[in-house]
Amino acid sequence: MRQRRQSPPRREEELEESMAVQQNRVTRSKRNMRRSHDSLTAVSSNECPNCGELKLPHHVCGSCGYYAGREVVNVAQDLDLDDDS
């Protein structure tokens, strides 16, 4: 059998400096096909049936505290913290 030539042992410094190099160039088509699922989607929002503010679907309304037709969270009224009374 034929024996393979052994390469000289590498120094640790050379191993740290070596970087990965692509074997073949990636075409524009392949690159864009890979990126086709990376696009951002707009956030969908629903109108709160109680107060009419926009809210995320399946979330408690931030302005009135209602979810599915009933009050889940007590929302504090606008307080004027500047008053000393």
Describe what you observe in this structure.
This protein is of the alpha+beta class. The chain has a domain at 43-78. Helices cover 15% and strands 9% of the residues. It is built from 2 helices and 4 strands; from the N terminus they run ααββββ. The chain has helices spanning 12-17, 28-34; strands spanning 46-47, 54-55, 66-67, 70-71. A two-stranded antiparallel sheet has the order 1-2. The chain has a two-stranded antiparallel ribbon with strand order 3-4. The protein is elongated and about 90 Å long. The model has no long low-confidence stretch (mean pLDDT 84).
Key words describing this protein structure:
85 residues; alpha+beta; Large ribosomal subunit protein bL32; ribonucleoprotein; Ribosomal_bL32
How are the SSEs ordered, and which strands pair?
Elements: H1 12-17, H2 28-34, E1 46-47, E2 54-55, E3 66-67, E4 70-71
Antiparallel strand pairs: 1-2, 3-4
User: Order of SSEs, N→C?
Assistant: HHEEEE
Number of distinct helices: 2
How would you describe the shape?
elongated
Q: Averaging pLDDT over every residue, what do you get?
A: 84
**Residue share in helices?**
10-25%
Rg estimate, integer Å: 31 Å
Main sheet: strands, sense, barrel: 2 strands, antiparallel
Q: Tell me what portion of residues adopts beta-strand conformation.
A: 5-15%
End-to-end Cα distance: 99 Å
The count of β-strands is 4
Taking pLDDT < 50 over at least 5 consecutive residues as the criterion, the unreliable ranges are none
Helix-and-strand structural type: alpha+beta
Q: What spatial order of strands do you see in the largest sheet?
A: 1-2
